[in-house]
Every structure is written in C-alpha cells, then in structure tokens.
Design a protein that fits this description.
The chain has five helices and 46 strands. By secondary structure, the protein is mainly β. It folds into four domains: about 1-225, no CATH class; about 240-330, Jelly Rolls; about 370-475, Jelly Rolls (Sandwich); about 570-690, Gamma-adaptin ear (GAE) domain (Immunoglobulin-like, Sandwich). The strands form ten sheets. Strands 1, 9, 10, 12, 15 and 17 form a six-stranded mixed beta sheet that branches. Strands 39, 41, 42, 44, 45 and 46 form a six-stranded antiparallel beta sheet that branches. β31 (about 405-415) and β32 form a beta hairpin. α2 (about 485-525) crosses α4. The chain is flat. The two termini are about 95 Å apart.
C-alpha cells in the first residue's frame, strides 16, 4: 500500500500514490471506524489544511488523540507529524492536506538546474488496471506568489495532471523545456472559483521529445490551497491485445492482434472519454517485422478483414485523451476445419487435399458460411467412401440455413484421371436443398456456391450461414480385392522371422555362456589346492576382491564333492554321517565386516533330500550369535539360516558372517528327510582363535 512519507530537505515532491479517484487509499494504516466513516492516518508537512463538505462532516486529530478541527467547512494549520483524518462520506467532501514542503515560486531557465518530481513511469496495463503510482503534490499560493514544480519527461510520454481540490480561484500553466528552448503549451486550467465536490479537472499533456514540464500554479486570491496528482504513461511501445472486448488506454497507443486470413474484427465501440466523442481506429497489416501495409481508418460498425500472408494486424488509437474501445473477433471457418473451405476442387488426384474439410457421412451436422464480404462465394467439401473395388455408394446431402440463393452440387470423381464422371446440382426447395448421387470408391466433392457467382461479392454483404448433413448407403459391395505380397513385404517378413527367432534363442545363449564361464572358472579355480590359504595371501598383498570369493562359491559347487573340498583346503571340521556330509572352514577375519567372524560351510546330502533345512549357530559359552551376512542370499533370523530344500547329491557352499562376543560356535543342521525330522551336529566345536580349538 502506498504511504505518504517524510520529505527530504532537497525534495518538494509528494510520495507515490494510486489513481486519483482512490488516492484516499494511500495511507499509512487503515483504522476501523464505526458507522462506515472513512478514517486514515497521514504524515503531513507544516502547512494549512482545508476541508469542504456538503451535507457531511470531517475532523482532524493529532497523534496524541487531541481533536484539532471538526465540521463541514474549515481550515486549520497543521505541523509536521502524523494526523488522523475522519470523513463521514468521502464522496460528499473535498480537501487539501499539506504533504509537500514549500515549492519554489520562480520558473527556472531552460538551461537552469531545477529539482523534478520523483515520478514513476507506468505502462498501459497499469492504466487499464488503475495501478499506476501517482505523485501527490500540495501547495499554498497568493497573488504574485506562485508554486512551481517540474516533471522530467521523455518522448512518447503522456502526462496526466489532475487537480484534486483548490480552496479558491486557481490558474495552472505548463511550459516545456528541452535544456535550450522553452515553449508555453496550450494545456492549461483556469478556475474562477474553488473546485466543486466530485468535479474532474484533468490535463493530459503528450510529450514529443525529451525534456521537462514546468508547472506553474497561481491564484489571484490570498492563501489559496491546492492539491493535485501527477502520472506519467508510456505510449510508444507496442502492446499485445489479449482482451479485445474491453480495451482502455491513454494517449497514442498501438496494439497488435494476430488475425488469420479467414478471420475478422468488428469495431463495436471506440470512444474519446476525455471529450466524450467517437474515436476512429487506425489499422495496418504487418507482413514481417519491417514490412507493413498503409494505415487505414475504421469506425464503429466497420469490419477489419484478415488477409493472406500477414503476421498480425496493428491497431492504433491516436489522441491526447483517455479512451476506451470494444471489438469482437469473428472466425469464418467451415465444417470445424479451422479455416475457410477452398473454392475450387484439387487439380489432380495427387494434389494435397488436406485443406478441404472432410465431412463424415453419419448424418452429423457441420456449420459453415459463404463470407461474401471477404470474397468467399463458393465452398468445396470432400467426402470419402470406403469398401471393395467396384462398390457403389448412395450419397445424400441436405443443406439448410441461409440457402435461398445457394446451389449445392455433388461431384463423382474418377480416382485415376480425376475427371468428373457425374455431377448433380439442386437449389432451394421446401426450406432446404437436397441432392443425391451414386458414387464409386474413393474421394468425391460437394460444392456449395452462390447462384450469382462473383457478382454476389460485396464488402457490405452479410455472410450466408449453411448447415450440412451427409449420409450414405452401400448399393453394391463389389468384389473383394486380392493382392499378392510384394517383394518388399516378403523381405520384411524374412527379417521379422529372423529377428523373432533371435529374440527367442537369446536367453538360452546367455544361459549357456554363463554356465560355461562358471565351469571354466571352477576348473581354473580348482587347479590350485588350499584356496583359503591363497585368499589369505591375496589379503596380505592387498589384491583381494570380495567378488572373487562370491564367484568361487557359485563355481566350486559345480565340481565333484571331494574335488571341491581339496580346492578349499583342509576343513576345520568334517562331519560325515548317514544322510549328510558337512565341511566347515574358518575364513580370514579380514574378510568379515565390522569385526564379524566369516565361516565357510559345505553341504552334500547323501542319497536323500533334505527339506525345510536350516542351520543354527550356538555357543557353548552361553553367548548368542547373530547372522550378519550370508552368501548366497538366504532367509535368516537371529542365529538361524533357512536353506529350504537341499537335493540329493547336490553341493552347497555357504559363506556366513557371525556377530557375537563368544569365541566358539557349534553348528546344527536340521530338516526333514523322507517325512521324518532329522538333525546333524559335528562333534567338535569350532573356535575363532586357533589356539583354543579342540585337539
């Protein structure tokens, strides 16, 4: 919200505020008031305030809450500071409040230095939305003692000076200075009496070159109080026209609007609001960024037509005034095609007919028009029949609307030579035009034209609206065609078969390669015995990768059992009993993560299948073990690993990382064999420290 601020010593301008009609909203804060009174707090300068109300009242209090003045017509001297103003009805009152320090009383020379108002330059959208920041100025003048202020301006600016109130007769004159010369402008305001409540006193000054406006306020009477606002608007920029139904602007403004060749704009209203009179619109066509047509004038009721090969149409309102306009945008499309239908059929069967509206033959209605004022006296539409060769279709066309002067034809086309095999036409009869024709397979055309042809064209003519419905019935289905496959199709089919075959066999190839690689790795891994000692050496050298152990677990299981045991080296425990052969190795502690104990376990069922098999790890020292990691991935819980089913004579190698405080572990294997529960436990305990192991 705009705020009235303290002025610096080198400033004589008021602060920025909103539009004149709402300047009361520019407050420091709004105070809730009972009975709908308007109340605001404002920071004032040293000076006199004047209030004039009709059948209403106003009062002024200081920042201590002391009532300084109250009534319908009074003048009071205020000091610097915050004051609360209460107005019963702002529409029934006018006032002047001192917001500006004393202004100079002499007009400067064109080359002289002179402080200017701190003005904000607004654009046209700020104007249309009443959001331009205004500058508020106040003063007190007497006979022979003028108030003078300046406004810096640029070419294509338009300055609005709006006198809010004056306590007596007042004269306002304006000079333009460019640094060398001075010109007195015709824009001036003279009042023989004080301003009236609700009166409008606005000066609009167009600016043609850079410089400054010097405003002189004078009065023949003593101590005439006045207050006005200043606004600056840019007019030179081009603006995009989004809402053509309600357009407002100030000064000479140009808008551009994208207008297709099958579209038009009608001027519904264009008015000079300042002088309350009609205002012509100037327009021209832009072919490129630098290529334009000549300017034309359009008045209320005129239509601006779109033409071919334009980028946009430019609209200009030229006046030193506030203006408003309303336009309407019209499209002249046919049959939902987003364009006007062509007036003539394609030249040959190979011509591009995508610009011809395609009419579905299901009886649905499609709208269109002959836009006679834009040179459109004939529309050609297309229909497509489908079926087998030699099929015959009955096409029935009904056209309604402004069809009294129209003629409708159906053209049966030869699909190869593009000759018209048959044509039938009809005119208005019984509130519509109806025509029917038998056509063959392919593309055919419907022509809607004015009976007078080009003679019907007139820029003042109205559009003729039409509505078309087309239905079809198959009279002869014809013979089903057969076409032998071309060489290209055969070649494509061969490629397809090979591709599908490759995709089907690819998974088996990948599986074979993986099995073969695992077998080769296992054979190579088995060439050296005591691989656990080899892994320890690799750890000492810093060349060991955990991937090597994971790969070994998968590969060694493919070897014979005794061969795989030799690969790993002498086990810590070998438990051989009916139903199971179990081997256990302790791995180098450096293989475990975060202090875990890595163990390698090998299992081979003997001529039986273990189902619901599980391994359990316990300590004879009473401390619990927990399984931190197991490879390959298996389901675990606390100190248990669930193996599911171990098939007869299979080889299973499992790497287990245990976490606990104990130095020993006992391993239990349990499961079901032939429907009976069975368990196996090596007789010896495995110790983490070799020195503690049982002899």
């Amino acid at each position: 919200m705009p705020v009235l601020n303290d002025l610096k010593h080198d400033e004589f301008t008021g602060p920025n505020m909103g539009r004149v009609t709402l300047w009361l909203v520019g407050l420091i804060m709004i105070i809730p008031v009972v009975n709908a009174d308007q109340s605001f707090v404002i920071q004032t300068s040293q000076g006199d305030a004047w209030f004039d109300c009709e059948n209403s009242w106003a009062n002024v209090t200081d920042d201590q809450g002391n009532l300084l003045a109250n009534g319908s017509d009074f003048q009071i001297t205020l000091v610097d500071g915050n004051h609360t103003i209460v107005v019963e009805d702002e529409n029934s009152c006018q006032w002047v409040i001192p917001v500006t320090e004393d202004l100079p009383n002499q007009r400067p020379a064109p080359s002289g230095t002179f402080a200017a108002l701190n003005s904000v330059i607004c654009n046209q959208s700020d104007y249309s939305q009443s959001q331009c920041n205004s500058t508020l100025i106040s003063g007190s003048v007497s006979n022979g003692n003028n108030d003078v202020f300046a406004i810096d301006v640029s070419a294509n600016d338009i300055v609005s000076l709006n006198l809010i109130a004056a306590s007596s007769a007042i004269d306002i004159s304006i000079h333009f200075q460019d640094g060398v010369n001075e010109i007195k402008l015709e824009n001036e305001l003279t009042l023989s009496l004080n301003t009236s409540i609700g009166g409008e006193y606005e000066l609009l000054i167009p600016v043609e070159e850079n410089g400054r406006l010097v405003v002189t306020v004078s009065s023949p009477h003593h101590d005439t109080l006045w207050m006005m606002t200043s606004e600056i608007f840019k007019t030179g920029a081009q603006n995009t026209l989004d809402n053509i139904h309600q357009i407002t602007g100030i000064g000479n403004v140009t808008y551009y609007f994208e207008l297709g060749n099958d579209e038009s704009i009608i001027v519904n209203q264009s008015r000079d609001n300042t002088n309350d009179e009609g205002l012509d619109i100037q327009y021209r066509y832009a072919f490129t960024e630098t290529s334009f047509s000549s300017w034309n004038n359009a008045s209320i009721g005129d239509r601006i037509h779109g033409i071919d090969n334009i980028e946009r149409v430019e609209l200009s309102w030229t006046c030193a005034c506030e203006w408003s306009a309303s336009l309407s945008h019209h499209t002249h499309f046919d049959a939902d095609w987003n364009s006007d239908a062509p007036g003539f059929k394609p030249l040959s069967s190979t011509s591009d007919n995508s610009s011809y509206p395609l009419i579905s033959m299901d009886g649905s209605a499609k709208d269109g028009e002959l836009t006679l004022h834009m040179g459109d006296y004939q529309d050609v539409l297309r229909v497509e029949t489908t079926g087998w060769n030699e099929s015959i279709h009955l096409v029935d066309v009904v056209v309604e609307g402004d069809v009294y002067d129209l003629e409708v034809s159906i053209l049966n086309m030869d699909q190869e030579t593009w000759d018209v095999l048959d044509e039938i036409a009809a005119t208005y009869s019984m509130d519509k035009i109806r025509v029917t024709l038998d056509v063959g397979l392919g593309t055919h055309f419907i022509k809607i034209q004015h009976k007078n042809g080009t003679s019907a064209l007139d820029e003042n003519a109205t559009s003729l609206q039409w509505k078309i419905r087309v239905t079809t019935a198959v009279l002869d289905e014809g013979d089903e065609p057969w076409f032998p496959a071309s060489d290209a199709v055969k070649e494509a089919a061969d490629v397809f078969y090979w591709l599908i075959g490759l995709l089907l066999i690819l998974p088996f190839i990948i599986f074979y390669v993986n099995v073969n690689n695992n077998k080769k790795f296992a054979q190579e891994f088995a060439r050296k015995k005591n691989r656990l000692q080899w892994l320890t050496e690799r750890l000492d050298e810093g060349n060991f990768s955990p991937i090597e152990l994971s790969k070994a677990l998968k590969s060694v299981s493919s070897l014979e059992w005794e061969e795989s045991l030799e690969v790993w080296g002498e086990p810590e425990i070998r438990h051989y009993t009916t139903g199971i052969d179990m081997a256990v190795w302790t791995l180098d502690n450096r293989l475990g993560e975060n202090g875990s104990w890595p163990i390698l376990i090998g299992l081979r069922p003997q001529d039986c299948e273990w189902s619901v098999a599980a391994l359990k790890f316990e300590s004879n020292q009473g401390s619990d073990w927990n399984v931190k990691m197991v490879e390959p991935k298996l389901l675990t819980r606390a100190n248990e690993i669930f193996l599911d089913t171990i098939y007869s004579n299979s080889r299973v190698f499992i790497r287990v990382d245990l976490v606990g405080n104990s130095n020993s572990v006992d391993i239990y294997l349990s499961g079901m064999v032939n429907g009976e529960p069975i368990a196996a436990k090596p007789a010896n305990t495995i110790y983490r420290d070799v020195g503690d192991s049982e002899e």
